[in-house]
Amino acid sequence: MTAPLTPPNRPSSDDHHDWQKPDPGGEPGGPAAVYGSHLAPAPGVDRDGLRADLLRAGVTVVVVTVAGVLMGLLWLWLAPRVPLISDNTAVFLNDSEGEEAIGADGTFALLGLAFGVVSAGLVFLFHRRGGIFLTVGLAVGSVLGSLLAWQLGTRLGPTSDVVAHAREVGKGVVFDAPLEMHAHGVLLAWGLAAMVVNLGLTAAWGPREFEGEWASYGGWGPGTPGAPSAPSSGSAAPSDGA
Questions:
Q1: Does residue 33 or residue 64 have the better pLDDT?
Q2: Cβ contact 240:7 at 8 Å
Q3: pLDDT (tens digit, 9 = 90+) per residue, 199-222?
Q4: pLDDT, tens digit, for every residue of 63-97?
Q5: Of these four, 12, 136, 230, 233, which has the most CB atoms within 10 Å of its CB?
Q6: What's the CA gap between 148 and 5, in Å, rounded?
Q7: In terms of C-beta density within 10 A (0-12 exposed, 13-18 middle, 19 or more buried), how is residue 169 classed?
Q8: Angle at the Cα of 118 (from 114 to 123), degrees rounded to 5?
């Protein structure tokens, strides 16, 4: 019986994976130094950049909200009127088969989609950038603008006191019903259109802030000094056999 042969120059357990140990004294160039330089948190927040983003978002909210005045006037002008008539005892629809009652909601929705496309396009054209603050400002301004357009249109339209209006015009005289919104979901049309167009424009023509970042992440990109080289295909692992 013969004892198994031990291969010469076999690395001991203490020397195994020495490349994983950090360099003594924290010398630069090791893996720990490379990863530490890229993964360490930023020393401080860019206050000037944050202040500029918030300012742009605030201006966007104000401008888009004010645009709701124009939308409200257009809604008042373009929305179909619902004709009413009175016999001095009750008020009736002059055309019971008419669809004017839902025409106001449809007109508001179409105007909201148009204003969403235009506002998102103008915001992107003016700033030429995306960002969470600018996107949120556009969304908030769109919702506030829709609410302003709704309230402005209903207040400037025919009076909501139908009985008093019927008595004022007299018996058998056709008059317009107040401008009302029955499906309040159309208030979101402006915001949804603005978000879709804004994201599309940013994805297509926005700045590429992270282009090429992953290729050199952590300093381990091709050609980076200190990057471990891949083992060649011809190298063979040491055998423990006899």
A1: 64
A2: yes
A3: 998 888 876 554 444 444 444 445
A4: 999 999 999 999 999 999 888 888 777 777 767 66
A5: 136
A6: 90
A7: middle
A8: 150
pLDDT score for 11: 53
What does the alpha-carbon distance between residue 199 and residue 26 come to, in Å, rounded to a whole number? 45
Rg (CA), the chain: 35
State the total domains in the chain: 1
Q: pTM for this structure? A: 0.65
Instruction: Assess if residue 166 is contained within a domain.
Output: yes
For residue 35, pLDDT over 50 is answered with no
What is the distance between the alpha carbons of residues 220 and 227, in angstroms, rounded to a whole number? 5
Q: Cβ atoms within 10 A of the Cβ of 22, count? A: 12
Domain annotation covers residue 193: yes
Enumerate residues 6+ apart whose C-beta is below 8 A from 172. Answer: 85, 86, 87
Cβ–Cβ under 8 Å, residues 108 and 181:
yes
Which residue range forms the structural domain that includes residue 130? 53-204
